[in-house]
Write a structure and sequence with these properties.
The chain has 497 residues and is an alpha/beta fold. The chain contains 17 helices and 22 strands.
């Protein structure tokens, strides 16, 4: 964050100083909510959590070098205390314990306001460029590609993994300092107004909308409502800003009418400003293509897995070109970019010769379809076709369409000729996925319904063999990554079989 005195921070967040010997003391570091990560010059965020209350660690944070604590009550050490009625945050997904008095929401609201002021001051004084990315799927992969293509132009701050909620968004924004040139952020939503609020916290100059799918359909009710929410990003852009829109998604392309910013469209369509042609995938499901922009073209050989990464790469290219990169540098950076976030199309071959695609961080119908296609490509493009396994769990937040969407995924697995489908779970959606596969034409044991993760692991241990390719994917609440980690030996230091 930009350097501020404790008095300045108190004024920004509407708090009061308690036990502060020097109101002019400077916060020169960042904001941390984990006392174990505090360094000299930091500000400690005392946030009530699911299992503990950050206020209990205020003294530890000060001893570790924190200048003060941002808290909801006095803690006996230097603190900026905000009142419970300070403000609110949109339908937080952050786990707050005992927040009946609103103290957790007040601290989050204070954090958001501090992030807004820090980001705006950096933009004014140092020229910080904020890039926001939204879409039903692909946000994290695109954010990682963005970080790679912007790095040759200057220092980049981006969230680790998908830390894009009401805590992660302002926390990431506050990692940006005077030396940061680019701040790349994901913007997700569970309802109308959420993206607008996140854009207020860290105002973007460049906004990227990847797609409008069915993720969070249960909250929104319709794809049209999702499009309305995603479009809040382009509405937040300044007139001198840039909206990067997916030309291949009509719901996204139509957002051009909702912004005063300049619009650049990316995709495979002939009318895209930045497009890809000659797309092929290699035996590792990595896409190769020709990148076209501004009358020039360059070859790109992606190192990340899945043909769906082409659209993500085009979006990243559009941003980098806007920020001053030349096409050759962009193509080189895209070709060298590797997966930076865990459990997202992470491909590993075990010592036993089993290839594991760990895409278990989260799942929605669009991302599962893309992962299944990558699985089949990887399994069948080698010289000798290999057996493909899809270990799938439930996709959350699909509302009344949940069973229908799971049924469609089961049917798709059969149509793509996945050799074995293991459906994990006992709920109606899991049964729907298994039944969809059976009804589409999967007989015998090609599709198997198992009750839990342990049963899936036991089945795999009994039946997988060298050369097999295994995809593991489900919504993160399912915890299906335990299957992938078991297979690769990542869990508890186990040796892969």
């Amino acid at each position: 964050m930009i350097e501020m005195t404790l008095r300045e921070i108190a004024d920004v967040v509407g708090g009061e100083l308690h036990d502060v010997p020097d109101p002019q003391a400077l916060v020169t570091g960042s904001v941390e909510f984990d006392s174990r990560r505090i360094g000299s010059g930091d500000l400690f965020l005392a946030l009530p959590g699911a299992n503990s209350d950050g206020h209990d660690y205020a003294g530890t944070a000060i001893a570790a070098g924190a200048v003060a604590v941002l808290a909801a009550r006095p803690v006996g050490v230097p603190a900026i205390v905000v009142a419970p009625d300070l403000g609110s945050v949109p339908a937080t997904s952050v786990a707050l314990s005992s927040d009946e008095d609103g103290s957790g929401a007040a601290v989050l609201a204070a954090l958001a306001e501090l992030a807004r002021v820090s980001t705006e001051r950096l933009a004014e004084r140092t020229g910080l460029t904020v890039v926001g990315v939204t879409g039903s799927s692909g946000k994290t992969s695109t954010k990682d590609l963005l970080a790679a293509v912007l790095a040759p132009l200057g220092a980049v701050v981006a969230p680790p993994g998908s830390f894009n909620n009401e805590l992660g968004h302002p926390w990431t924004a506050l990692r940006a300092g005077p030396d940061t040139k680019f701040l790349a952020l994901e913007l997700s939503a569970r309802g109308r107004g959420h993206i607008a609020e996140l854009a207020r916290i860290a105002p973007p100059r460049i906004g990227v909308v990847l797609n409008v799918g069915t993720a969070h359909l249960g909250e929104f009710g319709s794809r049209e409502a999702i499009a309305q929410a995603k479009g809040e990003l382009v509405e937040a852009l300044p007139a001198e800003g840039l909206a990067v829109l997916n030309a291949d998604d009509p719901n996204v392309s139509a957002m051009a009418s909702r912004t005063t910013a300049r619009v650049v469209k990316v995709g495979l369509s002939g009318d895209a400003d930045i497009r890809a042609t000659d797309v092929i995938t290699d035996d590792q499901a990595r896409a190769h293509f020709t990148l076209h922009a501004g009358g020039e073209s360059m070859p790109v050989r992606l190192a990340v897995h899945g043909e769906h990464q082409v659209g993500n790469a085009l979006a990243a290219a559009a941003v980098a070109l806007e920020c001053g990169a030349d096409l050759a540098t962009v193509a080189q950076a895209l070709s060298g970019a590797t997966a930076a976030s865990v459990r997202r199309m992470d491909v590993t071959t075990t010592p036993a010769g089993v290839t594991v695609i760990n895409d278990s961080y989260n799942a929605n119908p669009d991302s599962v379809r893309a992962a299944l296609k990558a699985l089949v490509t990887l399994a069948k493009s080698a010289g000798e076709p290999r057996r493909s396994w899809a270990v799938l769990g439930e996709m959350g937040e699909l509302g009344d369409t949940s069973v229908i969407e799971h049924d469609a995924i089961g049917r798709l697995a059969v149509r793509l000729d996945v050799d074995r489908l293991i459906v994990v779970g006992t709920g109606r959606p899991s049964h729907g996925m298994h039944q969809g596969a059976v009804m589409e034409g999967s007989w015998g044991e090609e599709s198997i319904l198992v009750p839990d993760i342990d049963a899936a692991i036991a089945l795999l241990d009994d039946e997988i063999a060298a050369g097999d390719v295994v995809l593991v994917k489900a919504s993160k609440a399912v915890g299906l990554w335990a299957v992938a980690e078991h297979l690769t030996g990542a869990a508890e230091g186990k040796t892969a079989r």
